[in-house]
Design goal:
Helix content is 26%, strand content 28%. The chain is of the alpha/beta class and 391 residues long. The protein has two domains: 143 residues, FAD/NAD(P)-binding domain, CATH 3.50.50; 136 residues, FAD/NAD(P)-binding domain. The protein is globular. The structure holds flavin-adenine dinucleotide (FAD).
Length: 391
């Protein structure tokens, strides 16, 4: 009979946050501590590269790897779906089987729901999934001219830079194909400005980057319906616009299993202490996109892999400390960075302190080949063996 583990960590969700918690905790915990990671998808995909897949500069199979290969030996992987959560009793149900742990980390990410906007799913390409990015690549290859629209369906999506990057990459790819005067790229955004959480100066810098690339920008547009037959998008302010090719960021929702678990909070995302990621339940943590962390200006911390990674390290360090009866002193400091691909193998870099008072203090470094190559390096290193720093 196998010896009882000294402690068990139940990590729910094997994306960026879950992988890092599992690997870091395995590194720090004792051999007889059990690290159990639950994930429904056996293949891990590196989402930042979807933007390259969509413009044909990355093959889809080059941004995916079996999850098992990304985990340290000794991390137990349970492939299955989390079907219910009982945080007060440190318990979850995986495909009908109940598991109780000493520490629970919820890293279930965000659910995407294109179907919540009538007509949207049929009308365009959801480049927030690998399948959607691949379909967009194929549609762009067939595209011979007209209007490309990049649409954000609702504010509050992960990686606030991504749709802006995607628009610039599409513009660059079409120019490179010689389509020049035959196409236009427009962004119709649900949010009031590009990356509004980073402050007006960053928004303005991004707007001028778009302007320099002749990408028209229409903020504050809430899509109501999309009609694939007439290729028309209707907005809630009564306006509408036509398109020839549509790429979209779908609405994001908290995972359904989280909604009924009693975490509180109006948004449905899990409120957590922004320094320790502890939820209102003892020994239950939320990391990454599923967590709601408040900034000094009252806005939520953006959803991004860079934060999921940093938060995961803090949680792993503190759980390991607690298990060895040491003080859990690690604190997440809100620092993060994000590449902004601008096309032509160049990227800008936004970075800074998101916990700064009275508002995030972020700077944007000018586009260069250097930052683009840094992102390429990150992709290679992440898919080789995380956790590496993730920006
Ligand atoms: C196009 C694109 C570009 C991006 N670019 C960047 C970038 O440049 N920089 C950056 O920092 N971030 C970027 N991001 C955001 C980044 O990918 C996410 O913020 C990050 O993956 C969040 O990590 P997470 O662990 O919280 O969630 P995820 O990585 O989404 O992982 C959640 C996991 O939980 C699993 N899961 C969900 N529900 C269940 C269930 N019921 N049972 C079992 N498993 C379940 C999912 O299958 C998934 O694997 C980008 C995202 C996209 C889509």
């Amino acid at each position: 009979m196998a010896a009882r583990p000294a402690h068990t960590a139940l990590i729910l969700g094997g994306g960026v946050g879950g992988i890092v918690v599992a690997n870091e905790l395995r590194k720090r915990a004792k051999a007889n501590d059990r690290i159990l990671l639950v994930e429904r998808n056996p293949v891990h995909v590196f989402a930042p590269s979807f933007l390259w897949v969509a413009v044909g500069t990355r093959r889809p199979d080059r941004v995916a790897r079996p999850l098992r290969e990304l985990l340290r030996p000794g991390v137990e992987l349970a492939l299955g779906s989390v079907t219910s959560l009982d945080p007060a009793n440190l318990r979850a149900t995986i495909d009908g089987r109940g598991i109780t742990a000493d520490s629970v980390v919820i890293a279930l990410g965000a659910e995407l729901s294109p179907e919540s906007v009538p007509g949207l799913a049929e009308a365009g390409h959801n480049f927030y999934t690998l399948a959607g990015a691949t379909a967009l690549r194929d549609a762009l290859a067939r595209f011979s001219g007209g209007k490309v629209i990049v649409l954000t369906a609702r504010p509050g999506y992960k990686c606030p830079a991504a749709p802006y990057e995607q628009a610039m990459l599409i513009g660059h790819a079409l120019k490179k194909r010689g389509l020049h005067e035959k196409f236009a790229v427009e962004i119709h955004a649900a949010e009031p400005a590009p990356m509004p959480v980073a402050g007006p100066a960053i928004s303005e810098a991004l707007r001028s980057m778009l302007g320099a690339k002749n990408i028209a920008y229409f903020p504050n547009r809430q899509v109501r319906t999309v009609d694939a037959a007439s290729r028309t998008i209707a907005f809630s302010d009564g306006t509408s616009t036509s398109y020839d090719l549509l790429a979209f960021v779908p609405p994001h929702h908290p995972p359904a299993v989280v909604a009924d678990a009693g975490f509180g909070g109006e948004s449905g995302w899990i409120p957590a202490d922004r320094a320790t990621l502890q939820t209102r339940f003892a020994n239950v943590y939320a990391v990454g996109d599923v967590a709601a962390l408040s900034l000094e200006n009252g806005k939520p911390l953006p959803k991004a892999g860079v934060f999921a990674n940093a938060e995961a390290r803090i949680v792993a360090e503190n759980i390991a400390a607690q298990w060895s009866s040491s003080a859990a002193t690690a604190r997440f400091n809100g620092h993060g960075a994000c590449f902004v691909e601008t096309g032509g193998s160049r990227a800008a870099l936004g970075s800074g302190d998101f916990f700064a008072k009275p508002a995030p203090a972020i700077t944007l470094r000018a586009p260069s080949v250097f930052w683009h190559l840094e992102k390429v390096l990150l992709e290679k290193r992440w898919l080789h063996r995380p956790p590496f720093s993730f920006i």
